[in-house]
Structures are given as C-alpha cells and as structure tokens.
Amino acid sequence: MAKMGVGLEITELRLGLPGGGSSCDGGEKKERKRVFSEINGGCNGSSAGGDRNMQAVGWPPVCSYRRKKTIGRGNDQAFRAYVKVSMDGVPFLRKIDIGSRDGYPALLAAFEELFGCFGIGEALEDADSSEYVPIYEDKDGDWMLVGDVPWKIFVESCKRLRIMKRPDTKLTNYNW
Amino acid sequence: MNFCPEEVLEHIFEFVTSHKDRNSMSLVCKTWYQVERESRYGVFIGNCYAINPVRLIKRFPRVRSLTLKGKPHFADFNLVPHGWGGFVDPWIKALAKACPGLEELRLKRMVVSDESLDLLSRSFVNFRSLVLVSCEGFSTDGLAAVAANCRNLQELDLQENDVDDRRGHWLSCFPESCTSLVSLNFACLKGEINLSALERLVARNPNLRSLRVNRAVPFEMLQKILIKAPKLTDLGTGSFVHDSDSETYHTLKSAMTNCKSISSLSGFLDVASCCLPAVYPLCANLISLNLSYASGINGNELVKLIGHCKKLQHLWILDCIGDDGLRVVADTCNELEELRVFPSDPFGPGNAAVTEQGLVAICSGCPKLHSLLYFCQQMTNAALITVAKNCPNFIRFRLCILDPVRPDPITMQPLDEGFGAIVQSCKRLKRLSISGRLTDSVFFYIGTYAEQLEMLSVAFAGDSDNAMLYVLNGCKKLRKLEIRDCPFGNMALLKDVGKYETMRSLWMSSCELTLGGCKTLARKMPMLNVEIINENDQVEIIPDNNDRQKVEKMYLYRTLVGPRPDAPDFVWTL
What we know:
The complex is a heterodimer.
Chain A lengths: L30 H9 L24 H7 L11 E6 L6 E4 L6 H12 L6 H4 L6 E6 L5 E3 L5 H7 L2 E6 H4 L7
Parallel strand pairs in A: 1-5
Antiparallel strand pairs in A: 1-2, 3-4, 3-5
Chain B lengths: L5 H8 L5 H7 L4 H10 L2 E4 L7 H7 L5 E5 L19 H10 L5 E5 L5 H10 L5 E5 L2 E4 H10 L5 E5 L2 E3 L18 E3 L9 H9 L6 E3 L6 H10 L5 E3 L2 E2 L6 H11 L6 E3 L3 E2 L8 H4 L4 E3 L8 H8 L7 E5 L3 H11 L5 E5 L13 H10 L5 E6 L4 H10 L5 E6 L14 H10 L5 E3 L6 H10 L5 E5 L5 H10 L5 E5 L5 H5 L10 E5 L5 H10 L3 E6 L19 E6 L12 E3 L1
Parallel strand pairs in B: 1-2, 2-3, 3-4, 4-6, 5-7, 6-8, 8-9, 9-10, 10-12, 11-13, 12-14, 14-15, 15-16, 16-17, 17-18, 18-19, 19-20, 20-21, 21-22
Antiparallel strand pairs in B: 22-24, 23-24, 23-25
Helix pairs in contact in B: 1-3, 5-6, 6-7, 8-9, 9-10, 12-13, 13-14, 14-15, 15-16, 16-17, 17-18
GO cellular component, one term (chain B): SCF ubiquitin ligase complex
Organism (chain B): Nepenthes gracilis (Slender pitcher plant)
Subcellular location (chain B): Nucleus
C-alpha cells in the first residue's frame, strides 16, 4: 500500500472542482475560488452563459424537490391543446386538454373520469380486449387508433377524439 | 416560592408554551424541573441524534407533540449521500410503547417508511396532526394507513416530500366517519387521485381551513371545493388550465368573487395564463401568495396578478417577474414582510432575470420586510448598503448570486462592504446566507456586528482561517454554521473547541480539513459526534500515518448519547 506523501496528493480523489488546490499551504488557499472563476471565463461584468452554475455539485442551492419541478419545465408550458372528445351513445361532447397530460395512460384515465368508460386503459395494450376503443382524427383527416405513435407526436397531430364502443369496430371501414 | 404547591406551579406553567422559556424554567430548581418535565406537552428536537427516544420519554413522559429534524440542511442540495440517516422508525416504535397519548408529529428531513406510518396510525388513539417536510422513504400506501386509521385526524400536511406515488386510492381510505379535518396538503404527490372521493371528503369536513391539492386535480374541481368548504382560508390549486370561454371558468370566477375568507393562495402547478383572471377577485384579501411552482405564468401575467394584491405579506415567486416586476411589487405590496425569489432556470443558459435593482426597489417600497431569499444574477455593494438603510428589520437575509464568486460588477470589488452594512444595520438578524466574491473582511464584520446571528451559510468565500475564527469568536448566539468550498482548515477548526458545545452543528465540506484535525477535535470533545462522510472511499482509515488526508465532508454536532448506532458504512464517527 503506497504511503501518503506529498507527491501522492495529486492522485487523491475528491469531490469538488477540477484542478482545485490540495496542499495545506496558505499560498494555495485562494486557488479554489480562483479556479471556479477561471473555469467560467473570469469574473467580468457580463452575465454570458449560465453554465458556470453547473460546475459545482449542489450549486445554486435550490432544494432538490424544487430542482426536479423546475428543470425543463420553464419553456414547455406553452402547449395547450383542447380537443373535442365524443363517445358513442353520449349526446354531448366534452373537451380535454391533451397538452397537459403526460402520456397515454393519463389520457385514458381522464376518459374514464369524464365518461365512465372503465377498462379503456386495456385498449392500449390490446385493442381487442377492451369494450371501448379510443380513436383520433389526425391532421390528414384520417381516423387512427390511439397509442401507436409516440405521445408527443400524437399531441401535435390529434384534432379530435372519439371513444367507440366495441360492437361498432367490427364494421371497420377506414373511410367513414 | 418554597410555599407554592406543585399544582399551582403546573397551572402557571400551562401558560408558558415557548420551548426556550420552558427550557429556562426547568433550570430554576429541582422542583421546577420536575413539574416542568411532567407537564411538558410539546418537545422540539432540532437534531434527532442529539438525544434518543428512551431519554426523551424518560424526561418528558407526557409528551404529546414532537418535532424532529434529521439530515443537515445541505442535504437539500444533494451534498449528503442517500442512506446517511435520519430514520424516524426507532422514535415511532418507542413512542408507540410508552406514549400512547401522542397527538402531533412534525418531521423535517427525515426518512420515514410505510411501516412507520402504519405503526403510527395504529398506536395513537388521539393522533391529530402529521406534518412531513422534505422527507422521503414512504409511499402513498403509508398515507393510506394514516387516512384509514387515524380517527381524529385534523391535519395531514405534506410539504415538498419525495413520495413514491403508487397511484392507489389513498385518499379514498379516509372513512366516512372522518369529519375532523382542518388541514390537508398533498400538493407534492405526483399521481392521480380519486376526484369524487376528494369531493366527498371536503363535503363532510366542514372545518376544513386549508386545502392544497396536487396537479392531478383539475380546474373543474375547484368550484366544487369552494362551495363545499366555506371556511377555507388557504387554497392550493392543482392544475389551473381550462378554456376561459367556458361555463366552468365563469362559474369558478363567480365562486371566487363570493369567497371572502381565502387569504392564502398557492399551487398553479400547471397553469394557462388565460385562466388567471379567475383569481383576481381573491387578490384583495390575500396575505400569502406562493407562485414559486407556477412556471407557466410569464412575467407580465405575474405582475398583473400581484398588482391586485395590496395586503400581501408573504410572497414566493420565480425570477421571471424581473426587476420591473419587482418594482410593481414594491409599489403595490407595502405590507410585505417576507419575499422569496427563486430561479426559474437555475442551470440553463438564460439569465436569472433579477438583479440588485429589483432588490433595491423592494426594500424602498416595503419597509416591513424582515425575511428574504433572493436568487439573482448580480449584486452590488451600493445596493446592499441602500437595502441596509431602508430595511433595518431583517431577521432572515439569504442572498444567492448564481455565480457564487461574482464581485460587484460595477466596481469589481468583493461584496464585503455590502454585507457588512447589512449586519451592522440589522441588529435582529438571526439567519444569514452570503454569496459573491467575499474576503476575510466580511467575516470580520459578521463576527463584530451580527450579535443575534444563529445560522450562517457560507460558500466559496474567505481567504484564510481567520475568517472562520472571526465568526466563531464573535457570534455568541451561533447555533448552526454550514460552510462549503472555503479555504478553512484545522487551525480554525481547533482554535476554540469548546465553542461547538454551544452550537447545534457544524458542516464543512470541500474545505481544508484533514483527518488528523478531525480526529484531534473528536478526542478533545467527547460530547460531540464528529462524522466524516466518506463517499467513494476517498479516505482510508487504516493505516495510521494518513492523518494528512483531506476530509471532503465533515458534520459535527453535540449529543448526549454518543455515536449513533445507525450510521451507514460510509459515515465514520471519529
């Protein structure tokens, strides 16, 4: 086992900024701070680049719960997509914001709440197993089975939704 | 006093509820100590490892309200590895056996398991209040047990916890007989809940004053809640997204117009700006507004909303409000006492949208301001000096410049003079966090002037050990000191070892401490636990001639019960 001597400090593993000073001498005590600012192009008046904030673990001191909620959310709040949803046998339609759901399960759960069509979640896994089949009209005017494409693409292309009851699907005809 | 019967003493003591006062009373004489301990209702334990459950119960056999704090504050910023400690389980087990009369439990930064919650729910017949803040380790199954079994539950308050949401129907577990709820906060949960169960729960709990829901609760529910909870004073919305032309929207807006009791508003976890006018009718009565999770509201909308809130005393917002927005706050909210401005994009390339100008504006318009948390792009000495002059009443002052070593951008000087002005002017300052380029001078000012300071947080500051010594010598009331990335070493640590027994805890990470220094301290001070957190096997304990190894993370705290038995492998108590 190697002895800890002056020369081996260079191989010491530590958490912290790369290149930070590791000796106990007074002369190197300022190095830690200077290193931080040198990495980030020096402390001048400009505020260019937030990447300086990424360099240190746990900085800026935003608690991890809040961190999880705000990363990536700041910019993608814009999308609001209210589309009409009809269900066979129900005389009035509903509207649902597909932009605020985070995936197919959430969408189908919302259908269950709105229409009481329990079991529609099964349609995602096996379109034949559920009594209800969710379909949507896309930008081309075609009626598609919900669940085939990635969620984000679905949200962008969906113009309206329909929940069909199983007996109708036997008379499948792609143009109606 | 010799002739005062104990019953009379006990009756008088009932009127004294503050922990500090009760602690002082217990020191007067043996009789007072006995009467006080037997009549003590509420116990506050700021560090769960300073004492153990057995001794707590021995001294306070009739405790009915317990507050426990676990992990050190820097755990919030991922500086404390998972599994470090703070387990509540031994406490609940011991209390279940010896204190069946427990009514309230408040936990912060602790690890709570479903089994603990289940045991809690079945062990205390009169249990009425559970508050969990920044805790982890439990799931909605544990909450289901609390809901189902705590017959007299009044308060279930979950703040910023990391909860495993099993998407079961925990809310539906509140029985029909549950009619005692006063406060329910589940905003931090991620999953769906049974909306009709929520509606029925609200309907049968007429004393409900505080309700904060999560994102899964849609806009449509709010009007139903408002109608069924007429005593509501604190509302946290979930999803606030709807078609603003719809009937539902207009119905909610009317319901809000009729709502005179709501004084506290939060949530908007998902929000469409077009819906915000629905809450304008509430604004005139608002005392407290938390929009710090409402990243969907842009600066202009924020300003419009706050412009209606003339009575506001507490405001938590995101920095997208901008300096201009803060000027509007300063003009409108003259009663403001507490302000927190959080970064909306802490790691991205965008700017933190507020600077020293926003802060100066606020302090000019809000003379009652006493608590501040401010994340900003930059700060100047001149601004801090102005702030110190206009707001001498600060009790809590936490400033975080996103680049932690940034000097005054106008003069290129360190921010020593600015913070110096703050500590000189704010004689009641109890909590301080500093940032920006700072030399030993700022520590000299803190040690000289911050006589009431109890908690200090420091990062990337100072030039030498003298800085730390100024603070340790000068701040007589210091309880918690947390330091990261500063050039402070053994000399500062060991100069006055007795000081640490007067404090709750000291955290030092990425400083210049060595293993030898920490060992020396531990040897001299047996009443302290000196813990080294050794992630990634950085430090080797054997062989002996390695005392010059740097210690990356050290956490020490005073304790009456010696090294803790639950320390994981990577934590060494020296």
